[in-house]
Amino acid sequence: MLKQYVVFTVNSSQYGIPLAFVEEFDTGITVVQIEGSVPEIAGLATRRGQLVTLLDLHEALSSRGESNKRAAEHSRKTILLDSAALTHQASKSLQRVFSSQIALQVDSIDYIQSFQTELVTPPAEEMKERHIDSICTHGGRIVHFLSIESLVDQIYRKGHVA
Amino acid sequence: MSTAKKSGFSIYNPAVQVVHREFYEEILSQIGSISPICNQGRSAAVEVSEDRNEEEPILDLIAKVEDFASELLRLTKNLFSQYYQKKEEFFGSIYGMTAYNKINLIDRNLLERTCDVRWWAMEKSFWTCIDSYENFTNSCQQLIAKLTESKGEPGGMVNAIVEKITVLQSSVSTQDAYNAAVRDLTSAWGSFSERSDEAEHDAALRHLLVLGDDLRRITDRACLRLEDISESYTLYRDLVILSRTGIVLANANPARRQAVLGICVAHEPWFNEAMGTQDGSQYFAQDVRDSRLENQPSLIFATAIRANGRETERPIGALGVCFDFQGECQIVLDEYLPKDSTGVIADGWYCFLSNHRQFVISSSDDVSVPVGTIAQIPRSHRHLQKGQHAMSSGVFYGADAFVCSALSDGYLEYGGLGWSCHIIVPRDLPVTLAEDQLLVAGISRSELHQSLILPEVHHQTSARIAEYKESIQLISLNGIVFASKLGRKGAALAPIFDHITKTGDFATAQMERLLEEMAQTELAQNLAALEMFSKQAIDLVDRNLFERAADVRWWATDHFFHEALMSPESAARSAASERLKVINNSYTMYTDLLLIDDRGRIVANSRPELRNEYRDLSLSPLPWFKETMRSHESSSFFTSDVVHSSLESEQVNSLVYAAGVRQGGARVSESLGVLATLFSWETESVNILKSCLQKDKNGQVIPGSVAFYTNARNCIIATTDSERFPVGAVMTFPPAYEGLKPGQSISGSILRSEQRYLIGSTLTKGYREYAGLGWSAHVVRPFSAV
Fold first, then answer.
1. What is the distance between the alpha carbons of residues A17 and A81, in angstroms, rounded to a whole number?
2. Which of B34, B220, B262, B412 could link B69 by a cystine bridge, Cβ 3.0 to 4.6 Å?
3. Strands (E) located in B8-102
């Protein structure tokens, strides 16, 4: 069975999320930082008259000791998520908290690709902590498939506690 | 430099290469096809969805595509415009500078001629020749006067004798004619003498014939001395000694001797100007024009020959030297123009000189740009300031071309004759790129694209292209997202975004290809320019050193020097020192001139203040001294490489030229001693190197550029930058430099002090009789930081 994913790069690693979660891609969005927010939330932006909360995946996916190589701010890409597709309670809550759509800030958007679900394998245990559902090799590189709802949930909880 | 006014870019500009025109049209066609596709996309958006919220992002995307297309077109046009403007500026700068260097090279050459003619005019053989001629002609006139005054002589016979004396006087220039005239006169005199009882007349005739024989001998000697000069200085076609009345008494060119000896040039301006000079420091240079001396237009340098060879005495005659202007200029004009494998100058390239009246006086192609015609150059190029150069584009000599011109500003005390040099460069200039251009230069592709040699527009365009590539990718990805959201209905949008993606990818890939080609062209042009400037640098120094080699050989034959070495008396040595001082005053490029005896002791020099320092010095162990003492021919000379020697102070490095001094100035005999000249190497060489640094369109040296000479051991012997490329440093050049042939140029890149430089180099091929010392000239410009 084939499923379409969007593959993007954060901190030199490739990640993928289902295409169904994506509403649109954009670049060069002006972000207003929110005072006191957790570092995983890059800030707020407006798009077509709507507020968008930008999640900084560079912060969210970096583990301690990892190199801090990232794209310059003006060239970072934004993946606007489809509100309707997000079903998890935390995601909905996050949308309610900020009265906004959610977008992911990444270093680059690489391609859209259909992956055979049979070839997608579970990750190592420690990867699960980093919201990685499964992995697959494509073009000689490992693509880490993110559980976007789990990630959003964690950021929501972290922000809620804060 | 002044340049022609720039007009807006047009793809129909003849300067635009066909391949670029094709590329531009292809881009235009591709971008043109986007508009109907976008209209199709708008229709499809309406068709697939009646929901305005679904339509809006699609319409936004299509609007972005249209913006992107028009921006890409503008960028392409701007890139071409900037590229061709830069190209024009580049060629204007390179060939404007080359035109200037050519005219400067000629000016340097002509300065040497002005020194030569003034110095040679003091030669003893020449003024004694004129003195002797004056004595002889005076005696002829006195005898004629006596004969015509004598009463009682048969009138018809006297007239016949007078006529024969007149013939004798006019035929003294050539041996055969003189001998015939003597036979004729003495035969007639026999009959006359029988009928005349005045013994005084016989004595006067005998005296006249003695003077005539002396004159013949002295004239032969003068001709030999002129030949000696001509052998040392091979760039003269002829040299002539003239009497006070403008009669040619002696010449250097045996092939022209029959034709010129005895002719009168009293009405030629150069002769009168020479006779009008006030002292030995003055000379006259006559611009190229016809003279009785030659059967082709002549460039004549002339000065007066003064009584007893003293600078301040009255003029007694003149010395005229006919410089091989056409031959010398031909070499200069043909240089630095592209040639095919057979050495023929590439089509469309011309180089010529014009005089102050705008007439062509020498041309690299006498068919297309004939000598004697008015130069077809823009009006602005006719009114340049001294030393200024200019570039214009237009139709010149039947082709679209750039014309680069430079007006002479003379050299040192030589003011020049107001000549200009012009180079016609074809506008549609294909640059042939070696496939392994980067490999040859040892440069990576990414290094090239970040290099300092590329214009800012190149970097800007590269950045914009990278942005566009991202934009196209985003448009494409968003198109897929929107289509997927619309399910089956969205399938109609897929081919539209697919087309947009392909067109965008094609256009940006083409632009990247073009940028790559432009970058490689820029690299190739810079390497070629550096090679050309290094060639100019080695040519300039070789010509200079050729003159030094000629100087020392000729001076070594001066009678003051062999007399000083033959005589232990201090008066002879003082006279030799005085003579050296006079030479040094005319030839200021020497720090000292030394006369050295056979034991290596300095017995005379041109700078009296240094005599004490030389007192206990023995030069006998020095290789150039030993070599020179072993030489037997006046055509030989020896030189040292540039090294510090005991002759000079700590800071000075001179180049020593030496020639043997022989008894009587003989052409072949043992050396009595050595004449050595200390050429002011550092001053002269650095001046030359500075003139060969790469410059920008405003004539400013490109920051960080350096020029230097190395000897055969790759050791720097002169430099324009003592910090980064100091004298004494041994250079490591790319492997391709091994086995370079004389006169061959090469280019590449070198690493030095954490900086990569582009480098152009040329190995000396010498000049005329001067074979060179295995030196190379190098011109570098910064390429990138490492």
1. 10
2. B34
3. none
Minimal C-alpha gap between A85 and chain B (Å): 11
Residue B524 CB contacts under 8 Å (≥ 6 apart), including other chains:
B431, B432, B433, B434, B437
In the numeric block, the tokens 């002791």 are attached to: B601
Which site among A3, A4, A24 would you substitute to test the B interface, given the most B Cβ atoms closer than 10 Å to its Cβ?
Answer: A24
Structure tokens at B342: 């057979």
Kindly identify which residue of chain A lies nearest to residue B58, measuring between CA atoms: A24
CA distance B397 to B413: 36
Nearest to A8 by CA among A85, A105, A83: A105
Q: What share of chain A is helix, strand, coil (3-state, %, to 5)?
A: 25, 45, 30
Model confidence at A69, in pLDDT bands (50, 70, 90)?
Answer: low
Listed in sequence order, the residues at least 6 apart from B504 whose beta carbon sits closer than 8 Å to its beta carbon are B65, B68, B72, B468, B469, B471, B472, B475, B476
Helix (H) or strand (E) holding A13: strand A13-18
Rounded-to-integer distance, Cα B243 and Cα B264, Å? 9
Closest Cα in chain B, distance from residue A136 (Å): 21
Residue B692 has pLDDT above 50, yes or no: yes
Helix count (H) and strand count (E) of chain A? 4, 10
The amino acid that residue A115 corresponds to is F
- What is the distance between the alpha carbons of residues A112 and B483, in angstroms, rounded to a whole number? 13
| Cβ neighbours, 10 Å, residue A140 | 5
The pLDDT assigned to B689 comes to 95
Tens-place pLDDT, residues B74-113: 888 888 887 888 888 888 888 988 999 899 888 888 888 8
- Asked if residues B747 and B737 have their Cβ atoms less than 8 Å apart, the reply is no
Q: Which of B160, B221, B222, B223 is nearest to B196 (CA)?
A: B160
Number of neighbouring beta carbons within 10 Å of residue B414: 19
How close are the terminal C-alpha atoms of chain B, in Å?
33
Read off the tokens for B203. Answer: 């004595």
Residue from A5, A7, A22 to probe the interface with B (highest B Cβ count within 10 Å):
A22
- Give the count of beta carbons closer than 10 Å to the beta carbon of residue B696: 14
In Å, how far are B9, B147, B162, B169, B245 from B165, measured between CA atoms? 81, 11, 5, 6, 18
Least confident of A119-123, B141-145, B264-268: A119-123
Q: Which residues contact B265 (CB under 8 A, 6 or more apart)?
A: B242, B246, B248, B271, B291, B292, B293, B320
**Cβ–Cβ gap B478/A25 under 8 Å:** yes
- Strands (E) across B173-231 are located at none
Measured between CA atoms, how close is A23 to chain B, in angstroms?
7
Is B473 in Cβ contact with A75 (below 8 Å)? no
Work out the minimum CA distance from B761 to partner chain A, whole angstroms: 43
Distance CA(A69)–CA(A56), nearest Å, equals 14
Query: Both tokens of residue B389?
Result: 């150069």
> Is B266 part of the contact surface with chain A (CB cutoff 8 Å)?
no
> ipTM beyond 0.95?
no
* Residues in chain A within 8 Å Cβ distance of B471: 27
* Alpha-helical regions (H) of chain A: 57-61, 89-98, 125-128, 148-161
CB-based contact A24 B57, cutoff 8 Å: yes
Burial (0-12, 13-18, 19+ Cβ within 10 Å), B163: middle
Structure tokens at A122: 């579970």
Residues B156-186 have pLDDT tens digits of 778 888 999 999 998 888 888 999 999 999 9
Which residue do the tokens 């650095």 mark?
B686
Alpha carbon distance B108, B105 (integer Å): 5
Token duo for residue B346:
């590439």
Q: What angle do CA B526, B529, B533 make, to 5 degrees?
A: 140
